[in-house]
Amino acid sequence: MPVQNGDILRVTTHMNGINSQDIQNVYHFQAAFETEQSDQDVANSVGGYLAAAWDHVYTRMSNEVSTSHFDIVGLELIDHKWTVTRVIGSYVWTLAHAFSDAGGAVTDGDAVLLRFPTSLPKVTGKKYLYGLGNASVTESQIESSPLADFVLMAISLITNAVVSGDNHLIPGLASTKWEVFVPLVSGVIDSIIAYQRRRKAGVGV
């Protein structure tokens, strides 16, 4: 079954942590298609979107961390809850460049925090990015040069993913509070290292 115009997708990325953790982040998209697109073409577009974003910061991330795969599902709002109605597939997550900082990573739980405000009140996307190299941090502050790289990453993450021609995937959030999909409109990078508790599998995505 192809992906149709207006479909809401949830993408869950999986990274291999230094201590064999499964590090997850979640992305949402809405299809803005002139014509339906195949699952594989959509997956290729998502893979390219992720590769483009992470290529800005691969030199800042510990080489002890690696990408694994990403899962794509379709969502629908049913009884006031975003519900998985179709499993599109699981795909190998390949980057243009492997993470390459050889100086060790910041402590587990420490992360770069990217925030993505939307046009709806109190609806903000967040990405906690695991695996930052020690060389990018001084006294809990991210150095100016890596910070600039994460700004470029944030810009990339709010940019539509092109599937083909005028068929795009719009990055955003599936808001439970407002029961709508809302696009991301800007990105904010915190210069101070954030902390994210990951006490059990699946928490902190």
Describe the structure.
This protein has 205 residues and is mainly β. The chain has one domain. 15% of the residues lie in helices and 41% in strands. It has helices at 39-54, 144-157; strands at residues 8-16, 22-32, 66-78, 81-92, 110-117, 124-129, 137-138, 141-142, 161-164, 167-175, 180-183, 188-189, 194-195. Helix 1 packs antiparallel against helix 2 (144-157).
> Average pLDDT value?
94
**How much of the sequence is in beta strands?**
35-45%
Low-pLDDT segments, ≥5 res: none
Shape: globular
What is the structural class? Answer: mainly beta
Largest sheet: 7 strands, antiparallel
Q: Share of helix among residues?
A: 10-25%
Element layout with pairings:
Blueprint: E1 8-16, E2 22-32, H1 39-54, E3 66-78, E4 81-92, E5 110-117, E6 124-129, E7 137-138, E8 141-142, H2 144-157, E9 161-164, E10 167-175, E11 180-183, E12 188-189, E13 194-195
Antiparallel strand pairs: 1-2, 1-3, 2-10, 3-4, 5-6, 5-12, 5-13, 7-8, 9-10, 10-11
Helix pairs in contact: 1-2
